[in-house]
Amino acid sequence: MSFAPLAQLTLHLRELEETGLRRFRRTTETPCQPHTVVDGEKLLAFNSNDYLGLAAHPLVVEALREGARLYGAGSGASHLISGHSQAHERLEEMLAMMISPFIPSVRALSLSTGYMANLAVLSALSGMAKDDITFFSDELNHASLIDGIRLTRAPYKVYRHADMEHLSQTLAACASAAKVVVTDGVFSMDGDIAPLPVLLKLCEQHGAWLLVDDAHGFGVLGNRGAGVLEHFNLRSEQLIYMGTLGKAAGVSGAFIAAHEHVIEWMVQRSRPYIYTTASAPALAHALLTSLRILRSDEGCRRRSHLHSLIHQLSSAPVPNAWKRMVSTTAIQPIVIGSNQAVLQASHDLILQGIWISAIRSPTVPVNTARLRITLSAAHTSTDVDRLVQALAPVVLA
After folding, report:
1. How many CB atoms are located within 10 Å of the residue 296 CB?
2. Cα 369 to Cα 293: distance, rounded to the nearest angstrom
3. Which terminal residue of the chain, N or C, has fewer Cβ atoms less than 10 Å from its own Cβ?
4. In what order do the strands lie in the sheet with 369-374?
């Protein structure tokens, strides 16, 4: 191979393979649901984020068809050109209504992905502060938050995971005019919930914004699915909330909800929002149905069933060899340790017809590779029993 940069890249790929860090895609052939077909194999899946089982809900699927008939296949332009449809407007109004008990004068802004939403709001906050801003980030925050903070080029401090004493000291030592504390609501790899009441109190004491990425809480937590803010019954104009719409909501996209002036500033100055084509209006139209289900009695029943499955799995007897993370959410990780061991465990489960992804660094810290089990309201108690029976001999091997 004569082209040196390509030879170097080939070497890096070989190193990933040898250290158990190379990632591979598997191709699903059925809708997102627990019993699925993957690369021709029938598997019971415990690795999607479709927490309420809405991705294949007949009413949501029909709403997507209806949205395509009403609005076509694409938006054709960015929101500020001609791509902001009636469906987008109605979606943002419904989302703002859901979050209104928790943020005064709230407004919502829809974006194409959760990753984009975090880049959009972080860059907008940085620009609003005229370069006199410091971000404070939990060490286990999602990659999109970490990347978004780095891309602002603003100063930032990383505080130890959920360590409020460490954060308090770091905030007190900061002289910046603007401060933003950034945290996951539900941490995506551990499944634990951020101590938001204490975080908000610290932010109020130090005049800081509190940005909450609730990708894994929206739709799942709270009596009506409004996420961690409802779970803790918080209310403050200092809250900025990001929720995704491709997990518990079952479709696609994300949103930022905050005081109306924050959202208007994003519309005027957030480059990831301004300079991208709006998502298909059909998706927004489908989400209107999804959110109605999420907030309905059916949504309550689905959340109740999901929480019963969480209790069933988390209370099942397990071998001493397991290192189970403490989690009361749909994310139920089991730490295996090495990359090769978790890959072998995942492979052994596939042979039993169970699909659980092996999570390795850099997604999680080195030597904490894990099976990240995620539960859905579409699972049954029988499915969970089958999972428990399959895991024991694998983990002990």
Report:
1. 13
2. 36
3. N
4. 323-324, 331-337, 369-374, 358-359
Q: Does domain 24-51+297-396 have CATH number 3.90.1150.10?
A: yes
Contact 194, 216 (CB under 8 A): no
What backbone torsions phi and psi does residue 61 show, to the nearest 5 degrees? -60, -45
Domain boundaries, the chain: 24-51+297-396, 58-295
Q: What are the distances in angstroms from CA 342 to CA 273, 322, 336, 387?
A: 38, 12, 6, 16
For residues 142 and 186, is the Cβ–Cβ distance under 8 A? no
At 397, list the tokens.
């091997």
* Beta strand pairing call for 41-45 and 35-38: antiparallel
Residue 6 burial (10 A CB sphere; 0-12, 13-18, 19+): exposed
Answer yes or no: are the C-beta atoms of 318 and 312 closer than 8 Å.
Answer: no
pTM of the predicted protein model = 0.96
Look at the domain 58-295 and name its fold: Aspartate Aminotransferase; domain 2 (3.40.640)
Name 131's bridge partners.
none
Residue 123 vs residues 35, 105, 220, 259: alpha-carbon distances, Å:
40, 22, 28, 17
Q: How many CB atoms neighbour CB 28 within 10 A? A: 16
Please give the structure tokens belonging to residue 233: 């019954």
CA of residue 33 relative to chain centroid, distance: 18
CA 261 to chain centre: 25
Query: How is residue 373 annotated by DSSP?
Result: E
At 195-241, the pLDDT tens digits run 999 999 999 999 999 999 999 999 999 999 999 999 999 999 999 99
Which tens digits make up the pLDDT trace of 171-197? 999 999 999 999 999 999 999 999 999
Q: 29 CB contacts (<8 Å, ≥6 apart)?
A: 36, 37, 38, 39, 40
